[in-house]
Amino acid sequence: MNPPTLRVGLTGGIGSGKSTVAAFLGHRGAAVIDADAISRNITAPGGTAIDAIRIEFGSQFIDAEGAMDRNAMRSLAYADSGARKRLEAIIHPLVGLEAHQQASQAITDGACCVVLDIPLLVESVYWRRVVDSVLVVDCTPEVQIERVMSRSALSREAVEKIITSQANRENRLKAADHVIFNVRLSLEQLAAEVKQLSHRFGL
After folding, report:
1. What is the per-residue pLDDT across 135-175, written as a single tens digit (0 to 9) for each?
2. Cα dist. 156→72, 144, 165 in Å?
3. Strand pairing partners for 178?
4. DSSP 102-153
């Protein structure tokens, strides 16, 4: 009889390198479920969240192609925490449903480890309940800012607002069962850290 599949919640602030760690875990054999990718799909044209967003926020938050207008919604959510919570009340259950379906399929297919890549894991009571272990990719806020500014057109102020809107570093570390400190690591060194940790996940 095979041991039960381990569900690992992977999280980290913007610019931490979480997506890179997820990719490395996938290469090691984990079934990786990307909550951000699911969120993008359900807010794309024809996505399951579009009608609810239109009803809750108005047609001005749906673009000409029928997708959620990300820029307009981002501006509203950063200015109004109540609006962000209303949006999350629409998005999170739908993401959770699709993630659960993908995880169930991965388990049926024989995966020994399912990695749920969830940026807002620490902020969410739901996600904390459905994972067996939490892996945090950690780095300093200054490194986060430098990385995000180097890969995007966002200003320092915009990146700082995103960081402020996420769980703070202390709370993420308190929630962690495992931590990868991703500062001044080359890709090869980061891959080696992931490889060493992955043995604990049965990979």
Report:
1. 999 999 999 999 999 999 889 998 998 898 888 999 999 99
2. 19, 10, 14
3. 135
4. HHHHHHHTT-SEEEEE-TTTTT-HHHHHH-SEEEEEE--HHHHHHHHHHHSS
